[in-house]
Amino acid sequence: MDNPSAALRKEINLTAPWALVEKFAGQHREKPEDANRGAEMIAEALEAVGVPVTMHRPDLFLSLPGPASVEVEGMTFRAKPPAFCASVPEGIEAELIFVPEASGGTPLDRNPTGTSADVIGKIAVIEGFALPNFVAGLEAAGAAGVIAVNPGDMIHWGTVSTIWGTPEPDDLARLPRIPSAAINQPDGLKLIEIAKRGGRARLRTELETGWFPQNMPVVDIPGGDDSEEFVLLHGHYDSWLEGVGDNGTGNACMLEIARVLWANRDKLKRSVRLAWWAGHSTGRYGGSAWFADTFALDLAENCVAQMNCDSPGCRWATDYTNISCMSETEGLVQRAVADVTGQVAKRKRPQRNSDYSFNNIGISGCFMASSMMTDADRAEKGYYVVGGCGGNIAWHTETDTIEIADKDVLLKDIELYLDAVLKVANADVLPMDWRATAAEFSATIAGYQKAAGDRFDLGPATTAVQELSEKLDGFYAALDAGTLPAEAANAVLKLLARILVPINYTRGSRFTHDPALNVPPLPTIAEAAALDMVPAGKVGFALTQLMRGQNRLVAALREAARLVEAAL
């Protein structure tokens, strides 16, 4: 089927999406009842343009930040407690300690960070954001609390749970047990000086954590074929206060794509499903995790790709050269970016964030953010790195208001996402190039082997990925020659995702959720790169872990190779 992207992009109209942006500018979507009203507004906007919508209403486990403060030497500093930190309204009083080695975190950091400092019973002061990795590491080291000094005049909301989505019983022990808070830099610099001379402070936090019913709109746009296969386009609608750039603009982007695709559903080969999530920050991706759990078998059988839409359409965000995507979707993303913007996109490995709740199922993914400010523009404005809003430092603050949205950028982002969705939905052969993934694996294994030296042999993994690469070369050659039917090829391409995405992005089993911490490439053998840091008395344990991890990796690679070979 011909790709109608160019024609359908001409049908994009900003009337409905911009009206939603303006409505969201006056609608908080942080507290559960306010977020539910935001979901109703999305549903009303969809219905107004003739798109039918299903409203799910799951109970989600959420943590709702309230007031916080830091009292020190007669001063009271304004603060924000991150979601899921311990609620201590009466406060804790303790000695302060500045921990520079646990500082410097940006919203893109996710791995546990501890300290060699004696933080036991003290309130640790760090520079950067209140992030789960830093707080978890300091809690494990014995800190009584954590205060994060944000890098500017504003204080950013966040979350410090390392649990992805709703916890299982065994996860509950990993909920943070200490209070933490963020303060701004002017106050923080004073606090750091006080900490350096051994001063004391009282840290107060107040949060409400529990179960709340949340609305989640979902739109299903049927394709023309009888296949149940679909592309999933998704983004969160809950925000800190009105959160126009994160993620009101994303909700508007998806609204317009739903309108255009519904009006042209007769031109679709595969179906498209659009979902607006609740519980992104206050539930640590609770909405998308609920959806992945509830519809896991349907997703496993029928979802051919997932695309995240977060913080498009923000002012000054004109750079599309760095896009998060899995290796097999890099070519797809590059073609979409080139066709719509004329820019050349480079791949970034997706990190463990942005509602990527489908890695354990094994679904290829692309996008998180799309348009971003250039490094030069950010430097000119004196901005630091944030996790959304196109790079605007209004991210996760009270200043993420209507001024952050930009009509021209929003239009371009709608065009980009629409084009990418259509490139998958209407492809005769799914546009996933697993040769790129195998090449990534080969480079990762070689890097790990170099780091491990003669302490561990990754030869079996090297051989297995070489054999898979050879089979894939034959597979794609048969596709190019027209000797491999598209239907048979697509079945293999989809099943390869179920095998290779988990081995590259997860440690846990299928139909679970790994922690909300970054996962290194090929995580089951990643310890090979860290053997230099393993104490002499624990090397044997690390080598045992590597042996087991390589077994899992090699088994997956062999399974993938057999799958490809059987199709030839």
TrEMBL record:
- Which Gene3D superfamilies does the record match to this protein? 3.50.30.30, Zn peptidases (3.40.630.10)
- Domain called Peptidase M28: residue spans: 218-411
**InterPro entries xrefs:** CPQ, PA_dom_sf, Peptidase_M28
**Which keywords has UniProt assigned to this entry?**
Carboxypeptidase, Endoplasmic reticulum, Glycoprotein, Golgi apparatus, Hydrolase, Lysosome, Metal-binding, Metalloprotease, Protease, Secreted, Signal, Zinc, Zymogen
State where the protein is found. Endoplasmic reticulum; Golgi apparatus; Lysosome; Secreted
Q: Name one Pfam family in it.
A: Peptidase_M28
Keyword RNA-binding found: no
Primary site of residence: endoplasmic reticulum
GO MF: carboxypeptidase activity; metal ion binding; metallodipeptidase activity
Please describe the quaternary structure of this protein: Homodimer. The monomeric form is inactive while the homodimer is active.
Q: What is this protein called?
A: Carboxypeptidase Q
